Amino acid sequence: MHFPQWVDLKGQDVAPDTVHQIVCMVDPIADKSWIRIRSKRGSSIQTDGIHEKDKIYPGSEEQETLSEGVKVLKGEYVVKAIRQFDMDQCIIFCRTKLDCDNLEAYLKIQQKDWSCACLHADRSPDERTANLKKFKEGEVRFLICTDVAARGIDVRGIPYVINMTLPPPEDKSSYLHRIGRVGRAERMGLALSFVATVPEKVWYHQCRQRTCSDTRRCAIWYDEISVS
Predict the structure, then answer these.
(1) What ranges do the domains of the chain cover?
(2) Please, are residues 48 and 99 in contact by the beta-carbon 8 Å criterion?
(3) How far apart are CA 8 and CA 27, in angstroms?
(4) Pair 34, 72: CB distance under 8 Å
(5) Which stretches of 47-124 are DSSP H helices?
(6) Are 64 and 51 in contact (CB under 8 A)?
(7) What DSSP string runs through 42-65?
(8) What is the pLDDT along the chain (228 residues), one digit of tens a residue?
């Protein structure tokens, strides 16, 4: 072609005007409530087990200790946000399938009427379809999902979205996709993101095993401050 022109009908991805974005810092040094919460059996969220073999010293500022504190506080902050804003419906994004399962179990023991459902790759297609249908019809208040499972779902106008963990910096589109689930002309939406002030140790599996506890090979330190 001679003198071709590019016509962009979609435009640049931007955050919707109807979405109010809030960042909540998760600081395990300033907020030591996680020590008390973690010490009471069954009162904190089940973490991902990445620090199971690490020595955690509550009150210290060791890297592994603070990472565990972040995980406990994020679960607690989700509960506080739900109560503070009296959320009727919310989509909650987690980084891994395990995080989704742990949060689902934690919310269900917090209050009896907090109905939850998960969307992630370990749930069968039939279960994911049923869970999404229940959420759309209002039978389920909280839809907990990973980015992969949430891609392509037709759910808009939800009043709240919680980012329990931010997506990686190279995946800006995932963040915009997440917050694009909330807000419409008749009702503003709120996107609440929890950002850890210290690096968090997370699973990043390099092996092909479905269950793995090799933290040397299959874990990374994730710094949310650098991507927020």
Answers:
(1) 19-42+53-226
(2) yes
(3) 42
(4) yes
(5) 63-84, 97-110
(6) yes
(7) TSS----STTTTS---TTS--HHH
(8) 677 877 666 555 667 778 899 999 999 999 999 999 999 877 899 999 999 999 999 999 999 999 999 999 999 999 999 999 999 999 999 999 999 999 999 999 998 889 999 999 899 999 999 999 999 999 999 999 998 777 767 777 789 999 999 887 767 788 888 888 887 656 789 999 999 999 999 988 878 776 688 888 899 999 998 766
In the chain, what's the furthest Cα-to-Cα distance? 72
Strands (E), 96-167: 116-119, 142-145, 160-163
91-101 in b/e form (b: 16+ CB < 10 A) is bbbbbbbbbbb
Distance, CA of 15 to CA of 176 (rounded, Å): 6
Rounded to an integer, what distance in angstroms lies between the CA atom of residue 13 and that of residue 156? 17
Which CATH number is correct for 19-42+53-226, 3.40.50.150, 3.40.50.300, 3.40.980.10, 1.10.540.10?
A: 3.40.50.300
Helix (H) or strand (E) holding 203: strand 200-203
Angstrom distance (rounded) from CA 214 to CA 49: 11
Asked if 67 and 52 touch (Cβ cutoff 8 Å), the reply is no
136 alpha-carbon distance from chain centroid: 20
Are the C-beta atoms of 204 and 220 separated by less than 8 Å? yes
